[in-house]
Amino acid sequence: MKDTLRWAVVLCGLLWAGTASAHHALQSQFDTTKPLTLKGTLQRIEWINPHAYFWFDVKDDSGATKQWGAETVGPAALRQAGFLRGPASFRIGEQYTFEGFSAKDGGERIFTTAISFPDGRKVTIFFGDAAGNR
Amino acid sequence: MKRRFIIGSLGALTVAISLASADIAAQGRGGGGGGGQAAAAAAAALPTPKRPNGVLDFSGIWVQTRPRAEAVPAALDKESGNYTNILRSRTGSPVDFERDSGVRQRVVPREAKPWYKPQYWERVQFNDVHGHSLDAPDPDFQCMPAGVPRIGMPQEILQTDTEMVFLYPLHQRRIYIDGRPHPPESQWIGTWFGHSVGTWEGDTLVISTVDFNGLEWLGWPGWFTSPDKTVTERMRRVGNTLTWQATVEDTVLLRPWSTAQQMRLLNTDPRAELEEPLPCIERDLGHIVTKERG
Predict the structure, then answer these.
(1) Does any domain span residue B94?
(2) Is the complex ipTM more than 0.85?
(3) Which candidate, A89, A94, A92, A46, places its Cα nearest to that of A70?
(4) Domain spans of chain A?
(5) Per CATH, domain A35-124 is 2.40.50.1010
(6) Peptide bond preceding B149: is omega within 30 degrees of 0, i.e. cis?
(7) A60: closest CA of chain B, how far (Å)
(8) Fewer Cβ within 10 Å of end Cβ, chain A: N or C?
């Protein structure tokens, strides 16, 4: 077991990996100045182009559940980030934390820049803010 | 004990990503595994294979592939376990990264652009601005087929005596090479890739395609088409090189428009495998707030 293995996966920007179809500018849909962090139970993974989606249920204080969608880079870029087995890198039903940008239309969508796994591992798949700060 | 993978070595990371390397399909520039012109010349010097019936054989995989064993993320530092991805952009900001890519899509030499009739100029501009909205969606943005010639050269070609099958990541085209004609216009049905027949002019395959649905674009900057579009492609195999160029005629254009010529090298790995293509599903159109095409 490699305790010393430190995985800092940093993918900056959106890759037109594999196909540019349906790819759109990040800032047309998400506000890069409004960060957001959500924790929820992973329900569904869509390993598709141009953007992969993680659908998860978030419980609020009253116990009510809302479905959120975490959009991220495409599968080819995710593979470059180290998810070699694709969706098999994740487990449905487990708790994941998603950090990213809020949706401009106020909907339950987040553009994910970091995912924290149930075992505590954190993978950053996006890095930098709108001003280019790291 | 929880394993904690800390992003502690961020300072040591150079954050950037090499864009073009991720796209296996974008092999337009020489297409080989490196070596550029020398590799192309060597490939062209090889004999050009023919099928038993004497016809030139275009079969093969015409993109570079990588064995699965080599699918280690390129940016992985095996000693430290860190990833270093280099982003090539002016400022390192993801917003500029997107905007720059949008600019690159539009920067085409004047002579290389399709020339639309004046009555269509406003529509082209409207398409360009609104191509990522419900008002004038670029079909490619909606994960619709790219059509011909936007889809470009195939990843793989299979050939029989009657047809060539052009295989693309999510689509295929059939080019009938048995001398049959196009169906008469009264039997046209309008499709994304049309009806294609190929005839030989010496060692060049001339592909004529008609019967389009008029929904596809020629390119990103709003270059729409009509069902009157006809496309003539010229494909030539010399040794292990394959060149391709398409010319488009359409009633919306002032004059015929040609793509740049592209060339690919044959993938000579006997164990080469093309990856299963993933579906393209558009989920963002209803959520786009700012009209920015990056």
Answers:
(1) no
(2) no
(3) A46
(4) 35-124
(5) yes
(6) yes
(7) 23
(8) N
- Unique residue bearing structure tokens 């294979």: B49
Q: Report if residue B43 sits inside a domain.
A: yes
H-run or E-run covering B163: strand B163-167
A97 contacts chain B (CB < 8 A): no
Q: Strand B195-201 to strand B172-176: parallel, antiparallel, or no bridges (unpaired)?
A: parallel
Q: Which of B106, B131, B127, B119 is nearest to B252 (CA)?
A: B119
How many separate domains does chain B show? 1
Contact criterion met (CB below 8 Å) for B127 and B222: yes
User: Whole-model pTM?
Assistant: 0.82
Interface of A with B in 53-72 (CB under 8 A): 53, 69, 71
Please tell me what DSSP assigns to residue A7. Answer: -
Instruction: List CB contacts (< 8 A) between B279 and chain A.
Output: 48-49
Write the pLDDT tens digit of every residue in B58-106.
Answer: 999 999 998 888 776 656 666 665 555 545 556 666 677 777 777 887 8
Query: What residues in A contact B10, CB-CB < 8 Å?
Result: 8, 10, 127, 134
C-alpha span between A129 and B280 (Å, rounded):
28
**Percent over 90 (pLDDT), chain B:** 61
Would you say the C-alpha torsion B246, B50, B61, B165 has a positive or negative sign?
positive
Q: Three-state SS string across B186-222, please?
A: HHCCCECCCEEEEEEECCEEEEEEECECCCCEEECCC
